[in-house]
Amino acid sequence: MLLIPCPNCGPRDETEFHYGGQAHVPYPENPNELTDTEWSRYLFYRENPKGIFAERWVHSTGCRQWFNMLRDTVSYDIKAVYKMGTPRPDSSSRATPETGTASTGPDSTTTGSAAPSTSTTSILSTTAPEGATK
Amino acid sequence: MAETAASPTSADKNLAARVSPAKQLAEAFAAGSLAGTVELSEVPFLTMVGLRADAGSETATRLAAVTGGLPAGSGSVATKGDASVLWLGPSEFLVVAPTEAHESLGGDLIPALREALGGDSGQVVDLSANRTTFELTGPRARAVLEKGCSLDLHPRVFKAGTAFSTEIANIPAILWKTGEESFRIFPRASFAEFLGRWLLDAMREYASPEVP
Ligand SMILES: [Zn+2]
């Protein structure tokens, strides 16, 4: 069970959340001008990285708000949570190399939320205003 | 609850015909409760109003003037008189008031909120029939809830006068700690029977006679 630090509610069980897939997928500016291939790329093609992944989550049974999260797909370590509409934070300082071996990953389970919520605070204070949309 | 008068009006008849979502469990709740240990009851037909307004907006200020304030963040509850406003999200709140506050019984709460919203974006919605209310009280109430709620319910963390939207027994519910040993739980009406029976089961070990 992941303990996910909701930016509004604090740490809650993973079962209170739903997953929204890859974050930062921009809606095409002129969808009508896309070829079928380009449209299908937008609709269906997503990254599947081994390592840090920016993804969307919604706190379904809590505040019902969407937010973004940086999660390590190998270790499940949550690196940061940040508001919809704000840019992906720089995770290089704390991220494990995406080319790293998987052998060290699975042992480090996600516990507590001190680190993510700290980074949330710093992220929120330095990024775009709330008016920015998803 | 309006008692049926000598010559009942149609409103009285309508009220008498209402069936609360956990009415069928009333006897089981009484039988499964043990005074001084843990007690469960349904508080039917509370007035509930859903509010949506962006925090800090003029709309929110006007709504707050009616309710006596809007709660600022997760967990907080703003109470004025016998009406309370629970924080559900950054721009979403739930007003909980006595049955008599409902406009069908002459209460002016909902019309006043509707007027405060005016034509602005936001919502004032009568949600009184959306959820029912369970009251769980007694020294063992926390232990019962801890069987199915992953929030930290220890009194040093979960203070009286706070409320959280969370999961209890794997269903979504709002949990409001109204006193040191008393909780109000708001399940959706369709979950009332399930949660009522789940609570009864969780209470059984405390509310049974001790085996010698
Ligand atoms: Zn939340």
From TrEMBL, chain A:
Compositional bias (Low complexity): 108-128
InterPro entries (alphabetical): SoxD (IPR006279), SoxD_sf (IPR038561)
Gene3D superfamilies: Folate-binding superfamily
Start-end of Polar residues biased regions: 89-107
GO molecular function: sarcosine oxidase activity
Keyword Transport recorded: no
Record EC number: 1.5.3.1
Region (Disordered): 85-134
The entry's keywords: Oxidoreductase
Identification of the protein by name: Sarcosine oxidase subunit delta
Organism (species): Pseudarthrobacter enclensis
High-level lineage: Bacteria, Bacillati, Actinomycetota, Actinomycetes, Micrococcales
Automatic annotation (TrEMBL), chain B:
Keyword presence, Membrane: no
Keywords linked to the UniProt accession: Oxidoreductase
Taxonomy, superkingdom: Bacteria
Gene3D superfamilies according to UniProt: Heterotetrameric sarcosine oxidase, Probable tRNA modification gtpase trme, domain 1
E.C. designation(s): 1.5.3.1
Pfam families noted in UniProt: SoxG
GO MF: sarcosine oxidase activity
Signal sequence annotation: none
Protein name: Sarcosine oxidase subunit gamma
Lineage, opening ranks: Bacteria, Bacillati, Actinomycetota, Actinomycetes, Micrococcales
